[in-house]
Amino acid sequence: xxxxxxxxxxxxxxxxxxxxxxxxxxxxxxxxxxxxxxxxxxxxxxxxxxxxxxxxxxxxxxxxxxxxxxxxxxxxxxxxxxxxxxxxxxxxxxxxxxxxxxxxxxxxxxxxxxxxxxxxxxxxxxxxxxxxxxxxxxxxxxxxxxxxxxxxxxxxxxxxxxxxxxxxxxxxxxxxxxxxxxxxxxxxxxxxxxxxxxxxxxxxxxxxxxxxxxxxxxxxxxxxxxxxxxxxxxxxxxxxxxxxxxxxxxxxxxxxxxxxxxxxxxxxxxxxxxxxxxxxxxxxxxxxxxxxxxxxxxxxxxxxxxxxxxxxxxxxxxxxxxxxxxxxxxxxxxxxxxxxxxxxxxxxxxxxxxxxxxxxxxxxxxxxxxxxxx
Length: 374
Known about the structure:
Mean pLDDT is 80; it is low at 1-37, 201-213, 227-238 and 240-244. The chain has a single domain (44-195, 241-373), classed as Vaccinia Virus protein VP39 (Rossmann fold), CATH 3.40.50.150. The chain is globular and about 50 Å long. The protein contains 13 helices and 14 strands. The chain is an alpha/beta fold. One of its GO terms (biological process) is methylation. Keywords: Cytoplasm, Methyltransferase, Nucleus, S-adenosyl-L-methionine, Transferase.
C-alpha cells in the first residue's frame, strides 16, 4: 500500500514524478489494501559486525536548533553509488538490486506496506524530536538505555549517542537495507569517523541555471500566490533546507571491523515487525523515541503494545513525534492517545500522553511525552 505524506520531490532531492497519477494510484491503493492482509517481516537482530561498508561515505551536514554539534546523514546518492560499484545490479535477486528498487520506491511513494516502510527518507518530525530532546536537562538524556522504533536516518539516536558516551541506543527499522546502508553508516559518521567538509565543487546543472534565470519572473508570480507558497514554506520535507554543505569520511578497510565493533558496544540493531522486538531484545528501556510511526490506525495497537512491553516501569519515558493528522490513512495523535487510554498491559497498567511540542506550521506536528500512569 503506497502512502504519501505531502512531500515534494524538491524536498529530498528526488526526481520529478507525475503528481496527479501518483495521487490517483495512492487513493486506489488505499481502497484496495484495506481489504488485504500484509505478511510482515518477523523481527530479528541484525549483526552489526557484518555490515558491508564502502571505502568512503558521502554525507549531508544538518544543523538542528539547540543541537550544539552538527549531525551527519548519509546522502542517498552515495548509497546508489555504492550499489553501482558493487556491480551486481543485473541480478534481480542480488541485495544491491533490492536496495535500488527501494530507492526507486522512495522516489515514487513514501512507503509501501509490508515492503518498504519509508526508512530512506528523513522525516521532518524526527527533526522536531531531536530539537526537543536537545532542550531537556542533561540528566534526562544522559546515562540512558534508549530504543528508537522506526529509526530510518535515526536523527534522535544520533544526537543521543553523540551527546553522552554513557548512552546505549538500540535501533529498529522494518527494512534491513535501511539499517545496513543508512542507519549504521549514520551512527559511524556521528560517533567514530573523522568527518571532513567536502572540497569537491558541485557543478551547476542546466536546469538549476535555467531556474535562476527565471527567478525574477517566478518572484512576481509568487506574490500572487501567497497562500500556496505559505504552505510550501511549511511543507513537511524541510530536511533539504537544513543541509548546509557536503561532507565525507574515509573508511580504511583494515579499520572497519574495529569501527563496527565499537558501535556494537553501544548499539544493537533490529529489523522487521516491532511487535516481535520485546522477546528478542529481552530488556527494558529508560527511553523510547519514535517519529512518524502513528500514520496508520492499523499500526497503532502493535506500537502501543511494543512500548508497553519495552518501557521501564515506573519512570520510563517515551517520546512520539508525529503530524497531528494523517489524512487518508486514519492515523494521528488523537487515535493514538485514545488507544493509550483504552489499552492496559499484562499487569493492568496504562500509559498516558501529554503534548510537549506543537509546531506553528500549516501541517501541524507534535511531540508527545508518554509515561506510565501513576
